[in-house]
Amino acid sequence: MNSTSLFFSNISNSDSTESCIEEPQHVSITVFLSIVFFVGFVLNAFSLWVFTCRMPQWSPGTVLQFHLAVSDAIVSPVAPFMATYFSLGSHWPFGSFLCQAEIALLTIHFYGSILFLTLISIQRYVAVVHFSRISCMKRKSFLQKLCAAVWFLVLAKGAACFALLDTSTAGNRTQCLSIHQGQHTDVYFTLNFILLIPGFLVPFSVSLFCYTRLASSVSRINTNNEKGRAIKAKSRKMVAVCLLIFGLCFMPMNVVRTIGVVIKKFFPEKCNLLLRVETAYYICWILAGANCSLDPILYCFGSQKFSKAVHSSLRRIGFKMQTIPEGNELECQAAPHLNPVSMTETKENMSSAFL
């Protein structure tokens, strides 16, 4: 009888929070993480060079794209530390300060990118759907102030994470940004919903509305001529890339993290489930990091000036690129005064100028 009781007791304790210790992740996570962030670093470094050195005149859309590229680039220093952490079996050897700095940079990057993508969607919505209206979203000076406000907000989020989260020790391992840090359970739970609702759900809803209206507006462009077909195709690709970034890169990370903090807080005995969710969360990190590689594609769809600058730069180093046809400009500029012409023709012309 005593042995039977001991047997069931061991089964029960095998899934308890005390035995739920962070496990080393598969080497593929380290490999893919390194590849994704390296490719993102190269593409964003090149994009920033194009913005600063090859595009002397910026439109309102270019202002937002540049700040998005900066947001993507600042996460690059984090990648080697994260790769080392996973390669050492989920052990952080770099000390408390660098752990806090990593958490802050990740927060600034992820939610800065989300907010700048949202501003891009709003600006394009205003410029295309409401092309005949005067709007502050068409002024570079206003957008520069708006970008400064976004940076202030995301830096405040990063500073809060820096102050509240730290390393902890479990056995012979030092943990950093781990769901198994029991002393941070309540902090992780609270921060998650602060980041989830205003940091992701609200911006995603706004972007979804803007791009739905934008796609509807562009669908009415006249496709009887080559210019209309080119604008329509490029606009659809741009909308698809934007929604792909939100749906593939940022949504899984926020959903899986929410599941993880709920399990840790309310069902800490579900150790095996928590370990699976933890692995899924690290995979979502890789997907989230892929936005650094997708955003430069967005710049090409969203700006003919950027595309021309890229083609010119590549030709200088020996790559032969096809010349970009005129009339496919997707930059957002101030709306000119409109004459009473056909609405379809006007929409096509304005989409060429604004998207």
TrEMBL record:
Single GO term (MF): G protein-coupled receptor activity
InterPro entries given in the database record: GPCR_Rhodpsn (IPR000276), GPCR_Rhodpsn_7TM (IPR017452)
Membrane topology: Multi-pass membrane protein
Cellular compartments annotated: Cell membrane
GO CC annotation, single: plasma membrane
A matching Pfam family: 7tm_1
Transmembrane residue ranges: 31-51, 63-83, 103-122, 142-165, 187-211, 238-260, 280-301
Domain G-protein coupled receptors family 1 profile stretches: 43-299
Origin superkingdom: Eukaryota
Keywords: Cell membrane, G-protein coupled receptor, Membrane, Receptor, Transducer, Transmembrane, Transmembrane helix
Protein name as it appears in the record: P2Y purinoceptor 2-like
Organism field: Chanos chanos
Organism classification: Eukaryota, Metazoa, Chordata, Craniata, Vertebrata
Protein's gene: LOC115827854
